[in-house]
């Protein structure tokens, strides 16, 4: 009969990190996130400068995300099998960033190629980009299991990540919408000549700082139960995935949450909302600036709750807040018109929309950061029940479902816009508001995210790793480090633990 993972033997002996190590390693996520931000402009580059159709690009962007998910498990195994004198994680981080730089150098310079070469090189550059991006991004989740096991320290990652990500994306949106686009007359070759090198330089600097942050912890003694860790063969991976219920539930929930977050961050959706419904694309940069403080408060509050009540509790409460705010946002957009939103002369409408939009975006997007840390909990759970340390493979399972689900974001945008007459080109700031475009905006910013949130809540009902369960898991790992996993534990693979009720 299978044993429960929460079996406690002794007291936890936490592996703790210094604050500066957590802060610097957090920047690895920022290093890859800035490429995610820049990737949002591939659609305008490929349709405006390369000459591809909007529907074709939207589908390709979706398929490339699926490809990203398909290769992720292989990358996870690569990370788990990596063992060099420079550690497990640092070589992968550096390699990933170099590959991503090379892919962008090619991707944003294909407009000068002959027509017969544009599509093949475009597709090849996208594939190479996803390989490099996945290599570096996977370490963000996998490395946290080695960085710290203290449940009070792990949410610090979410606070720092939330602050840096907010400042990065807000600053990026302001620079693009309020400076680069007006200066270079839109998404022109001159725009990309300045924008893309800037992205690559910032990402490289952040990546180097992250390597410094993980350096001391990138050591075998911090991997699972150290030298006593059970060796894992390729045939063991399927059994691990099949038996790890927390992994199954959280990856599915996180996938739909990421889908929602992708919609809120997509440049085409922002163009529909601010450039067409409200008639001024520059508002996307302005509201990003206005929402800096609320976004930081959402992130900090979520991590504070997690430190006191556990990551699962905070995750579920934020999803519940998203349900209410998304319904309100859909209602406001139904009555919105160009000129209604203005920060030069505040009106009741502007105040109401800003509050509701801040809540919708905050409750919808913040859980994506929490899932990064919860992946470390899932890794520790696996160690506690099997003695194995497979943080790389487990982390890429999150990426697999995440990529497949989020691939439907650009696909959904393409399908919806094609249905309202925009199959050849995306709407721009010069496109007049129509009932069809209004409805497209409501579906993309309210209806689809609401459906995704409800599905995620359903999966989280069966995710069992609450605060008490994790305390038991850490206590068990501490004992295993001293005595090693028993033969019975390795054979029985006691993955099944009861679901927790809210």
Automatic annotation (TrEMBL):
One of its GO terms (biological process) is carbohydrate transport. The chain crosses the membrane at residues 34-57, 92-111, 156-182, 194-215, 318-336, 404-427, 439-460. Residues 481-502 are annotated as: Disordered. Keywords: Membrane, Sugar transport, Transmembrane, Transmembrane helix, Transport. GO terms for cellular component: plasma membrane. One of its GO terms (molecular function) is symporter activity. It comes from the Bacteria. This is Mfs/sugar transport protein. It comes from Trichococcus palustris. The lineage of its organism: Bacteria, Bacillati, Bacillota, Bacilli, Lactobacillales.
